[in-house]
Amino acid sequence: MKNLYLLGATGSIGRQTLEIAETAPERFRIIALGADRDVEGMTELVRRHAPRYVAMNDAAAAATLAIRFPDIEVGSGKAGLNRLASLDQDDRDGLFVNAAVGIAGLEPTIAALKIGRDVALANKETLVVGGDIVMPLAREKGVRILPIDSEHSALWQCLEGERPESVLRLVITASGGAFRDKSRAELEHVGVADALAHPNWKMGKKITIDSATMMNKGFEVIEAMHLFAIPLGKIDTVLHRESYLHSLVEFVDGSMVAQISSHDMRLPISYALHHPDRVANPTERLDLAKIGKLTFAPIDSERYPCLGLAYAAARRGGNAPAALNAANEVAVALFLAGSIPFLTIETIVSTALEQLSFIAQPSLAELLATDAAVRDAVRGRYARQLL
Ligand code: MG
């Protein structure tokens, strides 16, 4: 029996994680659930899964839940989320599932690693911002970071049993997002609803916009670099409109090994939760003869400058990826609020990188300070649009 400590429970990945756990009640027990501020969503989940501990990032949300569920311990804010990740310190078989969205997911990952707990990771910021701190800590503690993302799960599956020296390069596929058929000129006038209409995947709003700008692919490149300890120069991307081939590894002998499956996050979730077992799950099966063909094309870097910005930030290292992430997160929020045009997202990110006070080997505190400073700077510059 594996105990699950799940952060980001009310979101898309969190709910699908619970669904996978429910299909194998003899294997998983839900011990703790955490979320940002969705009180009604969490109330429903607590009634269904009866966790022992609940954490809400938002203090008011935590207070409401504490009244509704007087018999359950309710934590709030940063301390509450960190307690969720490191609850029951002696539970060596426990798994912390981090499906939080945003920088709030970084410190709980560290809290889990510190007590030697494996982490199933869907939170991008953990590795994009904190990879240089998180991966050495995981190695020191001898714990595993199991990716929950279709691309990284694919790479993980392709790399199983292979030696590092056999790997020539990783190739991460990209669908191209909602605007893959639009020209740069057309992108000047696209709206929020257009951007949220992803051709292949149904996901949260933030990641859907990040797919349209290709920043999501940039984040995935940075994550892969940390997760698989592969130099940035050995990680490529390719446009693959159908999104069935989730990523591939090319080996030194010329073999390419790819992982192919439907567009369903429940598969990478199931793989991470059950690893090293493969267990039947309710995901859609592919009929390759019906699909007929898979297509591949180069990614136009002028069309998707955010991907180049992500590579540049990763190459620079230090606190540059933190600035990249923070600027992008505020920019996407501004776009979703209807405050800035779509193409201003990339302008905001590139300006933040140009104006960064660079730190080559930042501490966690310095990374969080960079995050806060960049957010303030972007919000300050676009304050008028927020009114
Ligand atoms: Mg992905």
Question: Can you put this structure into words, describing what you see?
Answer:
- 48% of the residues lie in helices and 15% in strands.
- It is built from 18 helices and 11 strands.
- The radius of gyration is 20 Å and the shape is globular.
- Residues 149-151, 220 line the site of magnesium ion.
- Magnesium ion binds next to helix 7.
Q: List SSEs in N-to-C order.
A: EHEHEHEHEHEHEHEHHHHEEEHHHHHHH
Task: Tell me the number of structural domains.
Answer: 3
Poorly predicted spans: none
Write down the Rg: 20 Å
Tell me, rounded to a whole number, the average pLDDT. 95
Biggest pleated sheet: 7 strands, parallel
User: What is the spatial order of strands in the main beta sheet?
Assistant: 4-3-2-1-5-6-7
Structural class: alpha/beta
Discrete helix count: 18
Would you count the extended β strands for me? 11
Name the ligand types. magnesium ion
Q: Which range best describes the helical content: under 10%, 10-25%, 25-40%, 40-55%, 55-70% or over 70%?
A: 40-55%
Give the N-to-C terminal Cα separation: 51 Å
Percent of sequence in beta strands: 5-15%
Q: What coarse outline follows from CA principal-axis ratios? A: globular
